[in-house]
Specification:
The complex is a heterodimer. Chain A is mostly beta strands. Helices cover 6% and strands 46% of the residues of chain A. Chain A has three helices and 28 strands. In chain A, the strands form seven sheets. In chain A, strands 1-2-3-4 form a four-stranded antiparallel sheet. In chain A, strands 5-6-7-8 form a four-stranded antiparallel sheet. Chain B is of the alpha+beta class. Helix content of chain B is 53%, strand content 11%. In chain B, helix 4 runs antiparallel to helix 5, helix 12 packs across helix 19 (464-494) and helix 22 (593-603) runs antiparallel to helix 23. Chain B is elongated. In chain B, strands 5-6-7-8-9 form a five-stranded antiparallel sheet. Chain B has a four-stranded antiparallel sheet with strand order 1-2-3-4. Chain B has a two-stranded antiparallel ribbon with strand order 10-11. The chains are: A mainly beta, B alpha+beta.
Chain lengths: 340, 680
């Protein structure tokens, strides 16, 4: 099949370098603004780009609307996770968490509001922060390379508690609203449930020990977690499985071979993405409803814009091993891509 | 009356018109004259008045008789009829008289008419004659009046001047004043006199001119004999110049030949010589080619026209016999269009290691562009490794000196129209013999062409060449040196050794187990067909001006293929690597994040690998780093518990953590001097 060759533009040193940077960019995290009109994306070079969803989705959208409104260097290392409160964007990567004001970020040369580093045990290497979680009563939970969960009070900025239990670094966090409990999944292959009031581990599920879902050739690591109070879905090295929490039994195993890096509940579906181009939509029964291809060879994060203030920007965005963020206006197909 | 009438016999009336009748009738006339009664003669005898009286009387009688007949008829009776008869006879006689009178009247009328006719004609003729004569005389008069004599055409001097200048024996004032005829005669005389004098003067002037011309000839000859003598003096002084180390003559000669250079080459020559004298002693400039041919290009047009008319006549004969084919004609036209100026400028750039870059600049006259041919000679003989074939080839050694300047297309947009006329598609077919028309060459010659894409800034023409000279010379030197460095490195790479210089050793750990096994050139099309290079092609980084190579690194059962894009602007533009690992399946950047991270380590983080300036070590350092990365990758691969047997590659590298981050990256960053691996 003839491949259409693009015209080679005369490239000087800077253009070549920028092109190479974009080729090797990975977007690790996304977060939607409280007004619902903007999307922040963080990449492996430590940059955060703010895209205007409302202008990219409008009918007069041009090519420039798919470029970021502003891009700035937020961290020295990769930005592994981001989360938004009603006024702030919190971003975390190499060892510290920084806060930015959403209203200020659209101006160039914006500075972080504050930055904090949780108390780490080791000093040889600064561990990364892989997951951020907002929990009720204005607290933030950080988890990552040092195998612990740290709780930080957002008003005072102090680190209140440390939850230990994982034997290898933590990949992901999820909040079980009812109890309230926090679930964490890590490289050691276990999903642990922590009670926030007592700060103790209440339940442990070692996924790799269950034969139906373990896949030794992929490893035992748990890359993604999502919970719906009674149910939990997790994936990673082992297969993507739906668990009933109270009984700690796997109920449905989703037949996909590629390790999944992000999973979430949406209405009556489960959306997952990981190695491979597609966003997968599953019925709770385990049937694959749809596989919608994106533009990146692998996906690392999915974000659903469900902010009530901007119903016209209600889209699903997916990002991963490329400089592009795919926008799905309708879960059936990819509408367009925003690009760094 | 009645007796007269009874005497009458019924004549044969001879009607005649009064004009002489035909001969026959004439005879009959004379015959009958004596015999017959001629009424015409009678007409002459009778008196018209009397006839008129007779006529009136006869009419009266007739009226009376008619009245009597009437009476008798109305009366009636026997003897009436006899009476009536009598009266009837009498009336008949009267009728006869009337008839005669009528005839006579007619004859008289006729005669009278004829006579008047004759008279009128005679008068008419006379009138005509007279009128004709009048006209004739009038014509003669006008002719006489219009007569102009020749003397009136001559512009004579005005009267005052005449009287002033003419000598008295010609002007004869007393006579001429009164008589205009004499005056004119005198004036004509004076005119003749003057003309004779002027003719004399003219002859004298002509002879003067001849004399002066001869003098000029003599002096010219004298001057022309002077020039050879001066030349011989100059020749004699050459040995003296050499003895004193002042090669003015040589430089002068060069400037002499430079005068015949076409303007762009002249600008280049001047600027290069100036730069060489001021900044760079290693630059030398020379002019090559035939000066006579250059002079021949500028023959004056009249000579060539005369030649043309002769040669046309000859050509007509030959072309009638043999017309050259269309293809040959087109070929000739093409050759004509691509003709080079006979003179060319040679620049020699000496680099530090005694290698020389020879540049020959040509000027294509009809296309108004300059081209360059390059050659690299080294101090020592170079053994060219197979993969280095293109590095120093004259065709590609100067490609993309400035980004995008590939030298395959003519920079002058006007040439496209010229090419269409002779069927040349593109100049790239002819660059091998003509040289490459790079944009920097045009700029060195001061030629400025509008770019195809609109650009914001406009560069002033005058300083174009000067401003580019220094940058271009530096770039040329860097280019030659980096190519030569690559040349040497390729020789080593082909033998499986990655040559890492001692000042770059700190970038790598002491022990590197993976080895480079193969290093080959790859064609552009083959590179594009590889399945793992799609991203680079789509990003527009794989043009046809780049050089492509394939490296194979092995360790144990693992084979890593690296496809390399070498930009002509190496080493300011880094080589770009794309990897494909064959070990427990095929892993490329689309299915393995760690392979993608390895590519990022050599492609994006290349600045650490540049080494000391001028960073000729970049490529070899990148290759060595790839070997290190492969080592790390293989050793840190997590062991699959379900499979039996030991790990193929035991971990020997010191790593703080094996996996980090959501993508579970391996520790690819080497820390010196601690010697451990960590994550970026």
């Amino acid at each position: 099949m003839e491949r259409a060759v693009p015209l080679a533009v005369p490239l000087g040193q800077t253009e070549v370098f920028q092109a190479l940077q974009r080729l090797h960019m990975t977007i690790f995290s996304q977060s939607v603004s409280p007004c619902g009109k903007f999307l922040a994306a963080g990449n492996n070079y430590g940059q955060i780009a703010i895209f205007s969803l409302s202008s990219a989705l409008s009918s007069e959208a041009k090519e420039e609307s798919k470029k970021p409104v502003v891009t700035f260097q937020a961290h020295d290392g990769p930005v592994y996770s981001m989360v938004s409160t009603d006024r702030h964007l919190l971003s975390a990567g190499d060892g510290e968490v920084k806060a930015w004001l959403w209203a200020e970020m659209l101006k160039k040369g914006c500075k972080e509001l504050w930055r904090r580093q949780p108390p780490y045990r080791t000093s040889l290497e600064v561990p990364e922060i892989n997951a951020l979680l907002l929990v009720p009563k204005n607290s933030l939970i950080l988890a990552g390379g040092d195998c612990q969960l740290h709780t930080m009070d957002l008003e005072t900025g102090t680190f209140t508690r440390v939850l230990r239990g994982h034997t290898d670094y933590i990949h992901c966090l999820a909040l079980r609203e009812r109890s309230p409990e926090v679930l964490s999944g890590g490289e050691d292959g276990a999903v642990r449930l922590w009670d926030l009031r007592t700060a103790k581990e209440v339940q442990t599920i070692e996924v790799y020990k269950h034969e139906e879902c373990s896949r030794p050739h992929n490893g035992r690591w748990i890359g993604c977690l999502a919970t719906d109070s009674d149910w939990m879905v997790c994936g990673g090295g082992p297969a993507l499985t739906l668990w009933h929490l109270r009984s700690s039994t796997p109920t449905t195993i989703f037949p996909i071979r590629a390790p999944q890096k992000h999973v979430t509940f949406y209405q009556d579906l489960i959306l997952s993405a990981g190695q491979g181009r597609c966003v997968n939509q599953w019925q709770l029964s385990g049937e694959l409803k749809a596989q919608v291809p994106g533009s990146s060879p692998g996906l690392l994060s999915l974000s659903l814009n469900q902010q009530p203030a901007a119903p016209e920007c209600k889209v699903l965005t997916a990002a991963g091993n490329s400089c592009r963020v795919d926008v799905f206006t309708n879960l059936g197909y990819r509408a367009f891509s925003l690009s760094f | 009356m009645s007796s007269e009438s009874s005497k009458k016999r019924k004549p044969k009336v001879i009607r005649s018109d009064g004009a002489p009748a035909e001969g026959k009738r004439n005879r009959s006339d004379t015959e009958q004259e004596g015999k017959y009664y001629s009424e015409e003669a009678e007409v002459d005898l009778r008196d018209p008045g009397r006839d008129y009286e007779l006529y009136k009387y006869t009419c009266q009688e007739l009226q009376r008789l008619m009245a009597e007949i009437q009476d008798l008829k109305s009366r009636g009776g026997k003897d009436v009829a006899i009476e009536i008869e009598e009266r009837r006879i009498q009336s008949c006689v009267h009728f006869m008289t009337l008839k005669k009178l009528n005839r006579l009247a007619h004859i008289r009328l006729k005669k009278g008419r004829d006579q008047t006719h004759e008279k009128v004609d005679a008068y008419h003729l006379q009138l005509q004659n007279l009128l004709y004569e009048v006209m004739h005389l009038q014509k003669e008069i006008t002719k006489c009046l219009e007569f102009k004599s020749k003397h009136e055409e001559i512009d004579l001097v005005s009267l005052e001047e005449f009287y002033k200048e003419a000598p008295p024996d010609i002007s004869k004032a007393e006579v001429t004043m009164g008589d205009p005829h004499q005056q004119t005669l005198a004036r004509l005389d004076w005119e003749l006199e003057q003309r004779k004098r002027l003719a004399e003067k003219y002859r004298e002037c002509l002879s003067n001119k001849e004399k002066i011309l001869k003098e000029i000839e003599v002096k010219k000859e004298y001057l022309s004999s002077l020039q050879p003598r001066l030349n011989s003096i100059m020749q004699a002084s050459l040995p003296v110049q050499e003895y004193l180390f002042m090669p003015f003559d040589q430089a002068h000669k060069q400037y002499e030949t430079a005068r015949h250079l076409p303007p762009p080459l002249y600008v280049l020559f001047v600027q290069a010589t100036a730069y060489g004298q001021a900044c760079d002693k290693t630059l030398s400039v020379a002019i090559e080619g035939s000066v006579d041919e250059a002079k021949a290009l500028f023959k004056p047009p009249e000579d060539s026209q005369d030649d043309e008319s002769d040669s046309d006549a000859e050509e007509e004969q030959t072309t009638k016999r043999r017309r050259p084919t269309l293809g040959v004609q087109l070929d000739d036209k093409r050759k004509e269009m691509l003709k080079r100026h006979p003179l060319s400028v040679m620049l020699d750039l000496k680099c530090k290691d005694d290698s020389v870059l020879h540049l020959t600049f040509y000027y294509l006259m009809n296309l108004n562009i300059m081209t360059v041919k390059a050659k690299v000679t080294t101090a020592m003989e170079l053994i060219t490794p197979i993969s280095a074939g293109d590095l120093l080839s004259p065709d590609s050694v100067l490609s993309c000196l400035y980004p995008g300047d590939h030298g395959k297309k003519t920079p002058n947009p006007a040439n496209q129209y010229q090419f269409d006329k002779v069927g040349i598609l593109t100049l790239s077919d002819y660059v091998l013999e003509l040289g490459h028309p790079y944009l920097w060459v045009q700029k060195l010659g001061g030629l400025h062409f509008p770019k195809e894409q609109p650009q914001q800034t406009v560069i002033a023409d005058h300083s174009l060449s000067a401003s580019h000279m220094e940058t271009t010379m530096k770039l040329l030197k860097t280019r030659v040196q980096s190519r030569l460095a690559l040349h040497k490195q390729f020789a080593s790479l082909e033998h499986g050794i990655v040559p890492v210089t001692s000042d770059c050793q700190y970038l790598f750990p002491a022990k590197v187990v993976s080895r480079l096994v193969k290093w080959v050139t790859v064609a552009h099309e083959d590179y594009m067909e590889l399945h793992f290079t799609k991203d680079i092609v789509d990003a527009g980084l794989a043009g046809d001006t780049n050089l492509y190579y394939m490296a194979l690194i092995e360790r144990g059962t693992a084979k890593l293929q690296a496809a390399v894009v070498l930009n002509p602007g190496y080493s300011s533009i880094p080589p770009v690597f794309q990897l494909c690992l064959n070990w427990k399946g095929e892993k490329t950047n689309s299915n393995d994040d760690n392979i993608r991270a390895m590519e990022g380590e050599v492609n994006v983080c290349y600045k650490e690998l540049c080494g000391p300036w001028p960073s000729h070590q970049l490529l070899t350092n990148q290759l060595q780093r790839l070997c290190v990365l492969l080592d790390v990758y293989l050793e840190t691969e997590s062991h699959d518990d379900s499979v039996e047997g030991p790990k193929e590659f035991p971990q020997e590298k010191m790593c703080l953590r094996l996996f980090r981050g959501p993508s579970r990256m391996k520790p690819f960053k080497y820390n010196h001097p601690q010697g451990f691996f960590s994550h970026r």
